[in-house]
Write a structure and sequence with these properties.
By secondary structure, this protein is α/β, with parallel strands linked by helices. It has two domains: 103-402 and 526-611, 3-Layer(aba) Sandwich (Alkaline Phosphatase, subunit A), CATH 3.40.720.10; 407-516, no CATH class. Helix content is 40%, strand content 10%. The chain has 21 helices and 14 strands. The protein has helices at 15-30, 35-72, 111-124, 155-164, 185-191, 207-213, 222-229, 266-272, 281-285, 309-312, 322-336, 352-358, 362-385, 420-425, 430-442, 450-466, 473-480, 488-500, 550-560, 565-573, 606-611, and strands at residues 100-105, 139-144, 195-203, 241-245, 276-278, 297-300, 344-349, 390-395, 399-400, 403-404, 503-504, 526-527, 531-535, 546-549. Strand 5 (276-278), helix 9 (281-285) and strand 6 (297-300) form a beta-alpha-beta unit. Helix 4 packs parallel to helix 6 and helix 12 runs antiparallel to helix 13 (362-385).
Length: 620
Amino acid sequence: MAREEPLLAPRPSSDGSSIRNEEEEFALLTGERTAQRAEKQRGWKFWREIGLFAWALLATVLVIVLAVVYQHKPAEIHGPSHDSKNITWGPGGKPTGKRNVIFMVSDGMGPTSLSLTRSFRQYKEDLPIDDILVLDQHYIGTSRTRSSSSLVTDSAAGATAFSCGRKSYNSAISVTPDHAPCGTVLEAAALAGYKTGLVVTTRLTDATPACFAAHANLRSYEDLIAAQEVGEHPLGRVVDLMLGGGRCHFLPKSQQGSCRGDDHDLINVAGKNGFGYIDDRAGFDSLKGGDNVSLPLLGLFAGGDIPYEIDRRTQNEIYPSLEEMTRTALKALSKATEDSEQGFFIMIEGSRIDHAGHGNDPAAQVHEVLAYDKAFAAALEFVENDSTPGVIVSTSDHETGGLAAARQLHKSYPEYLWLPSVLDKASHSGEYLAARLSEYLSGSGKDGKDSAKRDWVRKNLVKDGLGITDSSDAEIEALIHPEPGVGPSYVFADMISRRAQVGWSTHGHSGILPLGTDSLHLANSNIGVDVNIYASSSKDAWPLVGNNENTDVGAFLADYLDLDVNNVTKLLQDTKTGLFQSYDWMGDRLGLNFHSEGLDTYHGDFRKRSEDDCGCGATH
């Protein structure tokens, strides 16, 4: 007969019920009370719970400590290994021994510039999506960019943060908001026995290089800046090597090619202060990549800015590239410090990334970023192979243009794409094509019929220069008969931006909306966004890992070389002259109404600011 199951199945016992069952069984067998045993069981259970709680608390504290330590540990760099040269860290966390600093500035390059350029390169060279830029492999943090006078900095205030480690107003050249000079890392390096250098693709008198070797109340005082750079400076000559453009500010007014307001011959002054001078490709080639350089050296390869890389590559016999100048400068400074107890400090700038942003020219932009990436790679190669330890830090002063790698062309639902193939077809910048157009309209096409002009522009500039074959009559008309304030260079750039579906939130220096543009044409096209920081080694640049103020970058440069920038500031501030104890050598002081510190507020003048020029000047 089958065994009958109980009406109620046995219920599993808990830990507590098992103890209870043992107590009941003990009582039945012995007839004794179980209170004492139960008390012991409860005591054991109590202390077990206390022990488990203590262990959990200890484990939690340990996890928190490890998390804090990990958070402050330098981020590991992905990609090729560029390890530290085992620099000895001295008291106070500063390195000791001979060392070099290579500080690189990608003027106007924001995070989207990298995204745009990376995708363009992958398309152009048929690379996989994980083939990234050299810069991408060395990302360590970000930098906050505001100035003392605005949430949106310009290059002058941005570079002052790097050079002096201080916030200042837009347009200030290493001058504090109270119009006093602040010592720079380059000046401090020179006084400490380091060799120093500046390499740029814009004018050597432009804001970024100026902030390391000069002091001026306004960035527009370029004639004064040029004089200080060649030695007419309270501290004497502080720069050993300068390569870039801006020759017109060094030539006397009476000489062809000058843009000075006086007859001061700074090439002659430079010679008296020991500078060798070169001004063309032949002179640059004679340097033999840095093996044949006698310092100090001044190299001015263009009257103004060196052409955009997209245009320079077809004029290589005239202008050296940023990569070439970087390699030459580093080799020259290394040789000059071979037998010295001190190394060198150099600032290298990819200057015209900023200009491409102001011009809303995506074709020029990607080639400028690629040129900068090559210069960064050249600097990495130098650091890896040079016998002296060193660090490379690369960052931007701000982003320019409000670049977006997508653009809504119509009111209908947007397409999620942008087209790098459009940029690949462009062989020149809008700036270059606008210059050619001006030459044509003032030369062979001057007296021609409009129909002939349209045909010439459509074929020789739009098709051959931009690779565009579907230009509209309205676009060609805007080039031949431009509206006031809307230069042809912007029209060329807008044509290619729209077809590539690349967007910009701000433009150049005009208040006019060309060709039905969907964005306000603002006077200042810098953007208040955080920018990236890159380094040769996160171990050497560990204080910059994570999010930083731009002044933290300046502080790190001085700390790494153990420089006393405050002492330089004191020396400079002891130069007051005149009845009112002012710094006359920095140029005219700004008016009382000039806003140098504190953020502005909205004044209810939107319409007026939309229609009129802001009066702030063309600042980058």
